[in-house]
């Protein structure tokens, strides 16, 4: 009850709201909210203190990162300003396990925050994860479609140029990374136009069809077949005709039996 009355005072006192010592930026960054007891939130936010993490528990930042989407959901997007600094601190944590945890949940946080806050506050973090270690990148890759579908069309198109980078990994034997990319590209077909699919996704799909690992190739055959379906439904028939001609030239008439077998599997 005392906490409620204090919060009521802070929210409604006209002298405080007009005090010249508080700039609009400082008020926006204020950690005061009225959803949960303020002391509880302050205790949670203090978990990202580096000195505390070193002296109390090295895993504490990871636990904090794991719980963050739940805290954000509880507080609501109107109180995101309470968590924003903590989120950015965790996103730049030295421990890759902390960043990996955030990478796996950034799509959930985007749903909670909505498109405007996502574009302003989450997209820069997302871009950072794309350039991180493979252990972190796999988190955003596994939910790439879930995140990109929440972005505005123009912002979403910017990532077409970066999809090619997922073919390069720290360890070339990490075939599951490429298999996941093929799975995500199947879902991404619904988000992009026929021209974008032909110009950007097609080269990646053909590259995956020639992968050294059979599991990656098998998913890629499905990807190419779905691509043909998608382009066939497009208003311009040019793309699907060109794609099928390329399939015939690259695989059906290939001098290697494995290439001809690829063509049969795609037809299947």
From TrEMBL:
UniProt KW Repeat keyword: yes
Chain's gene name: Ppp4r1_0
Domain of life: Eukaryota
Keyword Phosphoprotein applies: no
GO terms of molecular function: protein phosphatase regulator activity
Protein name, UniProt field: PP4R1 phosphatase
Gene3D superfamilies for this protein: Leucine-rich Repeat Variant
Lineage: Eukaryota, Metazoa, Chordata, Craniata, Vertebrata
Keywords for this protein: Repeat
Ranges where the record places region Disordered: 1-31
Cellular component aspect of the GO annotation: cytoplasm
């Amino acid at each position: 009850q005392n906490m409620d009355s204090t919060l009521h005072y802070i929210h409604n006192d006209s002298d405080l709201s007009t005090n010249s010592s508080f700039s609009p930026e400082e008020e926006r960054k204020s950690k005061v909210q009225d959803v949960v007891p303020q002391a509880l939130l302050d205790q949670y936010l203090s978990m990202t203190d580096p000195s505390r993490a070193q002296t109390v528990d090295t895993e504490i930042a990871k636990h904090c990162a794991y719980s963050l989407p739940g805290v954000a959901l509880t507080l609501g997007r109107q109180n995101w300003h309470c968590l924003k600094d903590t989120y950015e601190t965790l996103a730049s944590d030295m421990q890759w396990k902390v960043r990996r945890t955030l990478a796996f949940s950034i799509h959930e946080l985007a749903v909670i925050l909505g498109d405007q806050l996502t574009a302003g506050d989450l997209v820069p973090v997302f871009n950072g994860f794309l350039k991180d270690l493979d252990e972190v990148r796999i988190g955003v890759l596994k939910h790439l479609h879930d995140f990109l579908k929440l972005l505005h069309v123009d912002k979403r198109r910017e990532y077409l140029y970066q999809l090619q980078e997922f073919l390069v990994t720290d360890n070339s034997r990490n075939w599951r990374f490429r298999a996941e990319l093929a799975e995500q590209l199947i879902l991404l077909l619904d988000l992009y136009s026929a021209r974008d699919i032909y110009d950007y996704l097609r080269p990646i799909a053909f590259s995956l069809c020639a992968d050294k690992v059979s599991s990656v190739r098998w998913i890629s055959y499905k990807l190419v077949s779905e691509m043909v379906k998608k382009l066939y439904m497009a208003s311009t028939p040019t793309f699907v005709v060109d794609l099928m001609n390329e399939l015939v030239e690259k695989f059906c008439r290939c001098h290697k039996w494995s290439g001809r077998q690829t063509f049969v599997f795609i037809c299947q």
